[in-house]
Amino acid sequence: MFGRSVAAHRRKAGLTQDELAARTGVSVRGIRDLEAGRVARPRASTVRLLADAFRLAGGERERFLRDADPAPAPAAAPQRGPRQLPLDIADFSGRHGELSRLDEVVGSSGGRPATVVLSAVAGMAGVGKTALALHWAHRVRGDYPDGQLYVNLRGFDAAESVADASDVLRAFLQALEVPPGRIPSGLDERAALYRTVLGDKRVLVVLDNARDEEQVRPLLPAAGGCAVVVTSRDRMAGLVAAQGARPVLLDVLSEQEAWALLTARAGADRVTAEPDAAAEIIACTARLPLALTIAAARIATHPGFPLSTFAAELRAPGRRLDALADGDVRRVFSWSYVACSKEARRLFRLLGLHPGPDLTAGAAAALAGSPEAEVAPLLAELTRLHLLAQHRPGRFAFHDLLRAYASELARSAEDDEELTAARLRMYDHYLRSACAAGEALQPQWLKVPMPAGAPALPMTQVEATAWFTAEDRVLPGILRSAAGTGADAYPWRLAACLVCFYAPGARWSESAPLQRLALTTAVRSGDVLGEATARRLLARADSRTGRLADADAGMRAARDLYAGLGDVLGEAQAEHNLSEIALQSERAPDAIGHARRAVELYRRGGYQAGLARALNAVGWVAANMGDYDETIVNCREALDIQQSSGDLNGQAATTDSLAVAYEARGDVRLAATMYERSAALFHRSGDRFHEAEVLNHAGSAHHELGDADAAGRCWQEALEIYREIGSHAAEEVERNLSRLRAGRSSR
């Protein structure tokens, strides 16, 4: 009987019915009715609150939940999809009313998407929004078999660090197993694809630390059984009004909750023995969960000290963190800091130099200038004392107030030389890996030259993709940090490495501002190679986003800088890019001139990968000008080189150029075969847009040959890809299929 189970657990926990009611937010009468067996089927939210109050976990918790509903439970839905929730908060306590409110809101959604906004009253940081959201999300994650998505939107970090909704959508789509080549570049297109993917799924989405509703709106599902929890210092009135979000306003802990937290962490005997000291500790921490948790951790690690000792420390006058209106939280932070070993204190200070949002043990080791094996126990020490959180396996993050505290300590305790040396070690750490990852992803591109003494370490393509994905939100911050501290050797190199990852996903709008910053720092330091590279990659981004005049001028400036340096390969790459820009601008004679010049320079420099790409460029422009013989001669030479080197994407592009030439010369059957071969190569290289484009051409060739089945197959495959990536080219393919169906029905 469930009532007997409740009573047994209450007695085991040493609680009266009144105390259990206070812990759970359930009325005393409700507790009595439960224990007396007068409630046949208690609400699921009530049962979970009781389990939390009894601190039940694992099998014991499962048995308790089963006791509440003895009817055979249906088989649990198989868990699938992303599992992005950070670790649950250990020893979470209190917030029973808010947990019940969340249960009620989502439970009353009727299968519609449920948007819940958690907002701290007066916008206070450290009030426990994230802790509440994650604890609740872990409790209900079994209700969302298609997975959980999580992102820290960094809404109240420095302006340049705030997460961009388009970037978040790309990461979410990748987590939902949408291939990078299918993810469109525009915000609206990404949002549309995201809503489509989630349309028939049950996914829990946690959007943490949002700045405002405009940052959140593109991240909301539109249909299906998804639930969204948003945490913010803002009340999100716009979401409440327009999207029907339900607000759960979060204040500091109540007196009762604060006492419960301190009692759970410090021990009931100590709190009962010194109630006045306990009350003063609670008052000095302003009942702010972050501050009280850190204070309680220090108390727990000194079991022989009376509480009055800690109260006296808090009572002493001291400065306050500007972010807080009440309570000397800086002094509370100092307790954990002072309790650390000397080595851990130094690491904590240096971690304050990292721009976030998180870092690995390797990055921490670089900042400390120590082997990773020596840093690992220091990270564990900082985590144990709540100065750092391991929010994902192997990745550590600060609360924003603690980051500010660490940064303050670094500026006051370290001399400028040590701070500079630590930053340079950090930049070297990221640049070494970024160069290795970029080379693995784009082996046919020119290598980014490393600064002296910073050799790159080889990676496989799989390792490179995983590394870039993990560090995707860190690297722009590292680049900006280097630019802001005058470490001008790093920004242009990091920006060049990032293009290797951005280009396949057409992330040119993200690349452009980083290239502009890279250009500024290169010019500032007089680094001509850096200036040439940043100008070239900025021009490339401009050309992909329709700024053709700016692209042409920037690329010519880059070419002239390379020529002045005697950098033949850099000049060749710029000429190749100028050919692309000229063709986009419908200046075919200029385009073929630039392409031929690129071929000449690549031959002189002996760079085979670049030579093959330039030969294909000559062939492609020649095809656009009607000179198919020149197309075939150049493209056959290019294809031989690319097959020898294993350049799949290059082979795909060159095979497409040859197919165009053969089709124009009347050999449509050979052209159709080569279009399909090109599409298969684009598919293997992950280039979904060009795969669809070539499949569309293959469909047209098959249609011309009178093979309606083959034409329909190719067009249908192209249409599905275009729809997946949100391309307007789908409309043309739909028209082709409509004409094909109309022709069949008229027979």
Q: Would you kindly provide a written description of the structure presented here, covering whatever features stand out?
A:
With 747 residues, this protein is mainly alpha-helical. Helices cover 64% and strands 5% of the residues. The protein has 37 helices and 8 strands. Helix 22 (416-441) packs across helix 24. The protein is globular.
Notable traits:
five-stranded parallel β-sheet, 747 residues, mainly alpha, Rossmann fold, single chain, 434 Repressor (Amino-terminal Domain), three-stranded antiparallel β-sheet
In brief, what are we looking at here?
This protein is mainly α.
CATH superfamily of the domain at 96-250: P-loop containing nucleotide triphosphate hydrolases
CATH architecture of the domain at 96-250: 3-Layer(aba) Sandwich
| Global geometry | globular
| Uncertain residue segments | 72-77, 109-113, 118-123, 317-327
Question: What does the largest sheet look like?
Answer: 5 strands, parallel
What's the structural blueprint in terms of helices and strands?
Elements: H1 2-12, H2 17-24, H3 28-35, H4 44-53, H5 58-68, H6 96-107, E1 114-120, H7 129-140, E2 148-152, H8 165-175, H9 187-198, E3 204-210, H10 213-216, E4 227-232, H11 237-242, E5 246-250, H12 255-266, H13 268-273, H14 275-284, H15 289-300, H16 307-315, H17 329-339, H18 342-351, E6 359-360, H19 361-368, H20 372-384, E7 389-392, E8 395-397, H21 400-413, H22 416-441, H23 461-471, H24 475-484, H25 491-502, H26 508-525, H27 528-544, H28 548-565, H29 568-584, H30 588-605, H31 608-624, H32 628-645, H33 648-664, H34 668-685, H35 688-704, H36 708-725, H37 730-745
Parallel strand pairs: 1-4, 1-5, 2-3, 3-4
Antiparallel strand pairs: 6-8, 7-8
